[in-house]
Design a protein that fits this description.
The protein has eight helices and two strands, in the order ααβαβααααα. It has 274 residues and is mainly α. It has two domains: 69 residues, no CATH class; 150 residues, no CATH class. The chain has a two-stranded antiparallel ribbon.
Length: 274
């Protein structure tokens, strides 16, 4: 309510009262009696009653405007709260992403440390040339393990018709002999992929692609045979889901029919092979 409105109203009221005070003696002397005077003074009462009613209406109008302003303020407050909530959600999402990535890259670093600590003696070179065997470490060790496994399977294929049961039995013997090297390696690799899969982060495949980029061709061969064995049955669905064998070179397996033991998604294609 503007101040000048109030001042104008006060001035009008005083003017009316002043006019009535000036005219009242003349009205009293010129009337025939109190009844006539009351009838004439009633018009003034009606005037003030009208002014009072107008004031009530004006107060209602002002109150409605105040309520409208309050409603707008509440809407603005609500929008501010919604925006603050959105910002908090974004901050929380960013913090979750950072925590995940810290854990992810720590585990990836641990994986590389496990690979670097692998060590195997080249029994073939020792048997062929005599003397002490060469010691292969890191990914050279994995390459040697790959050669041993593929060699075993190919030797069996030369003697027996292709059979998945024989393949499983051959890998079983290989894994039991080299479990001290392969067990920790595959458990850690599986844990990393599983962590990505079960997380709430977006673009999970970006992280599994990072893992796949760390794997050598020999590691992919060992992974392929491990996941079609009982030791990798939980790992196999994740290999297929995230196409972890996508970069497995042609001809690197002991027999290319071994690829048919996977869904084609494991190799990065959409058509399923049974």
């Amino acid at each position: 309510m503007k101040m000048w409105h109030v001042l104008v109203g006060i001035v009008v009221v005083f003017l009316l009262w002043g006019i009535v005070g000036i005219l009242l003696p003349g009205i009293m002397s010129g009337t025939d009696g109190p009844g006539t005077f009351g009838d004439q003074f009633g018009s003034v009462n009606a005037l003030f009653s009208g002014l009072a009613f107008a004031g009530v209406i004006y107060a209602v109008i002002l109150q409605s405007k105040e309520l409208e302003l309050q409603r707008k303020e509440l809407e603005q407050t609500r929008e501010v709260l919604i925006d603050q909530k959105r910002q908090l959600e974004e901050q929380n999402k960013t913090m979750q992403q950072q925590r995940f990535e810290n854990t992810f890259f720590q585990m990836l670093s641990l994986h590389n440390e496990i690979v670097d600590q692998l060590e195997i003696k080249d029994q073939f070179m020792m048997a062929r040339h005599g003397g002490s065997a060469d010691i292969h470490t890191g990914r050279r060790c994995i390459f040697t393990l790959n050669q041993i496994l593929v060699g075993w399977i190919r030797d069996i294929i030369l003697k027996e018709p292709y059979d998945v049961a024989i393949l499983h039995q051959t890998y079983k013997g290989f894994y039991e002999e080299y479990q001290h090297l392969l067990g920790h390696y595959f458990r850690n690799l599986y844990t990393i992929i599983k962590m990505v899969d079960q997380s709430s982060i977006e673009r999970k495949r970006d992280y599994t692609n990072i893992i796949r980029a760390q794997l050598s061709s020999s590691e992919l061969v060992l992974l392929c045979y491990n996941c079609i064995s009982p030791w990798g049955e939980k790992f196999k669905p994740l290999v297929e889901k995230y196409s972890l064998l996508k970069t497995l070179p042609e001809g690197s397996l002991a027999d290319e029919r071994d690829r048919l033991l996977y869904l084609s998604s494991a190799f990065g294609t959409s058509t399923e092979k049974l």
